[in-house]
Amino acid sequence: MGFLSPYRVLDLTNERGLLAGKLFADLGADVIQIEPVGGSRARCVGPFVEDGPGGGRSLYWEAYACNKRGITCNLDCKEGQDLFRQLCLSADFLFESEVPGTMEHRGLSYKTLHEINPRLIYTTITPFGSHGPKALYAESEIIVWAAGTALYGNRDGDRPPLRVSVPQAYLHAAADAAGGALIAHFARLRTDQGQHVEISAQESVGQATLSGILGAAVGDLSYERLAQGPRPTNVIDQSGSGSILRRSKWIVKDGYLEMHLTMGPSVGKFTNNLLAWLREEGAIDEALADIDWIRLPQLLQSKDVSFDQVERTYAAVAVFLRRYTKTELMTIAMKRKLLLAPIATTADLGESPHLAERAFWLDVEDSTGRKQRLPGPFAHTTSDAFAFRRAAPRLGEHNHAVYAELAGISEEVFRELKRQGVIS
Amino acid sequence: MSDLPLSDLKVVDLSWVVAGPVIGRALADYGARVVRVESGTRVETARVVGPFHGGKTGVENSALYGNVNAGKLGLALDLSVESAREVVRDLVRWADVLIEAFTPGVMTRWGLDYEALRQIKPDLIMLSTSLMGGTGPYSSFAGYGNVGAAMAGFQNIIGWPDRPPHGPFGPYTDYVGPRFSLVILLAALDHRRRAGQGCMIDLSQAEAGIHFLAPQMADYFTQGRVTERLGNRDPHMAPHGIYPCRDREDGLVSWIALAVRDDAEWRRLAAIIDGEELARDPRFATLADRLHDVEQLDDIVGAWTQTLTSQEIEVMLQAAGIPAHTVATSGDALVDPQLAFLGHFIELDHPLHGKTVVERSRYQLSDTPAETTRVAPTIGRDNAYVLREILGYDDEHIAALETSGVLK
């Protein structure tokens, strides 16, 4: 079943939008992923498993096409376009992420499809927008991040700003597409009319600036100042996360730890708790352990405590933490009320007892018996919200079933379409 | 307002900072009546995080708070007091949806957990968004955004391979979580419409974040490969990264983002940098060649980009069909012709600042576009309206609450 079980979705997206349909599929909708006869571009996005003839199997595809049915259709020929229009008759939602103008060129624009199915909610994901001066900009993931202002403030000292090492921008946009389509669904419940929903990835990633994107508009360039030079030193940073000081990474026995040495009235107690532990273990000079980090901002200002003492505290903590593993520190943190977190690798996540207990992982098996483990339900609910049915489809895996069911295609016509290269 | 898709929807928003409030902002944009409850004495974090109007710290100055709470009604309540929680219960009786983001256990302690609330509102949809989720050994693990990003695997994969991890800007899972929250909340509302049943939704921001690493998790599970940080390099593109440019007129440091997707793009870029000789240089002919000599390649590109402004490079390379974009500042965004074309920045009247600016809705609906017309509440701005008009309290009742000091 699942919350969205009554609905059918046609998913034309490539790597820029697969996640939108995936969210619908996980919530129970019948999502039909439509690929070109030669296969989706998303099948060329890594990481890959090198286990088959002719190269790798894309785990990007397997992760984000999971739970969908898969068919092929050549939308660049008239027969394919006609066939696709037939599928549209019974669809509730459509997602697409083609280069702007492509769908118009095929005669499959929102306007055209709205005429044959006025209830269809047609959602378009683009890098910059379907129209406008940058609509046809040459782009890729890092370009969208840069344009959305989500890079500028994230600089590590002397080097240029940093992106996430794996693709993210279009995932933000695709998740927005799912949300936007559902809002349009509520409009449809009132009017019985579908509409066109558009998502610009440039706008989506602006969210990753913590509203830093609004800085110039309100006259505050703190976000930009973060990037102007080496890391600040001798700074009084009363935030919980150390966002100004940015000195929160520690080397521990088996990796890294995230912990800001917090100070001030609301968060200073966490550092006091930490230093109490060091004192018990004889790992810090008494004089340093005596410093009250709740009052530290005033003590630094009045010069009752020097930044040199703060430096020596940092040094003592750094030496001390190397004795412990991430898991040990996690356990101690919960007991002693320390504000820290292990910096998880994907291996740590895969082995996490917390995620295991929450039954977060989903094991799927494809039609050839190949097993795959993936992130599963993205929430816990008291009603049956999710429906997990299948692994990502092989190319054209559900052609027969879907074309017979939705377009009434006979075996004979099916063979003819195949011969013409309209489907595979 | 009555034509908006969600104009029948009533929401109590007890959440704070970013991951929770973003959800209610989206609902309010499309007509929902959202009552944002907050304490004016224990001021919520978003109000003390910038950017601030005029760069001046102050609980009514935060553009972050303004951005994620625009369109909501504001009720100031001290939830540590039972009579304030009685007001929340009345709001729940009125509402369809309750959103909260306290550390797991807090709502239960207050008698405001789902089991208690559904006694008074059987078809309530309650969305709890927390760092690690409401169950499991780490459920009580609280912390700020840096903690969520660490626990969800992002800190480790943002940074240079030869340095410790650097991590994302700000609380990365707060950018991911609300997107999943909005989807499941709307799906739950549709389910309620059909089945007449409410529900409790427990959403972990870390788990939502891990969905953005699903391929990397599959990589670990299928072949034990652990994702490493790569700086700004990419296994399938070279050159690929952020390169320094000539200083800007405003004095800020400046970079260009650049990605070469195939060999033909490289030849075009090389020809622009250094003429045909570089374009034909066999050291860089194929992606494999370029990845092999990537340090040298980056040096050549970086030496060239430093001689120009990022704007000059963007124009030149885009004209040649090569992906390039200025690493935009907020000032660049404000004059970005594409964002201007889309109307990304919305100016709203503000009672204290005259004007303020928020981002527009991230979903563009052709027939029922968002209406973002009212600024986020100053603390307690709508107390009278909420208590009188929505809850129907009489003067005596309101006066009693005021006297007891819970309306702040």
Largest sheet of chain B: 6 strands, parallel
Helix tally of chain B? 17
Total number of strands of chain A = 14
Give the quaternary arrangement of the chains: heterodimer
Q: Order the strands across the largest sheet of chain A as they lie in space.
A: 5-2-1-6-7-8
Strand segment tally of chain B: 12
Stretches with pLDDT under 50, minimum 5 residues of chain A: none
State the major sheet of chain A: 6 strands, parallel
Q: Roughly how many Å apart are the termini of chain B?
A: 29 Å
Count of DSSP helices of chain A?
A: 19
Radius of gyration of chain B: 25 Å
Give keywords:
heterodimer; A: 424 residues; alpha/beta; six-stranded parallel sheet; three-stranded antiparallel sheet; 19 helices; 14 strands; 37% helix; B: 408 residues; 17 helices; 12 strands; 14% strand; elongated
Give a verbal description of the structure:
The complex is a heterodimer of chains A (424) and B (408). Chain A has 424 residues and is of the alpha/beta class. Helix content of chain A is 37%, strand content 14%. Chain B is built from 17 helices and twelve strands. Chain B has helices at 21-29, 63-69, 82-94, 106-109, 114-120, 145-151, 172-195, 205-211, 214-223, 263-279, 287-292, 294-305, 310-319, 330-335, 337-342, 383-390, 395-404, and strands spanning 10-13, 33-38, 73-76, 97-100, 125-130, 199-204, 240-244, 255-259, 324-326, 345-350, 354-359, 364-365. A six-stranded parallel beta sheet of chain B has the order 3-2-1-4-5-6, sandwiched between helices. Chain B has a three-stranded antiparallel beta sheet with strand order 7-8-9, covered by helices on one side. A two-stranded antiparallel sheet of chain B has the order 10-11. Chain B is elongated and about 85 Å long. The interface between A and B is large, with 144 and 162 residues. Strand 8 (196-200) of chain A pairs antiparallel with strand 12 (364-365) of chain B, so a sheet runs across the interface.
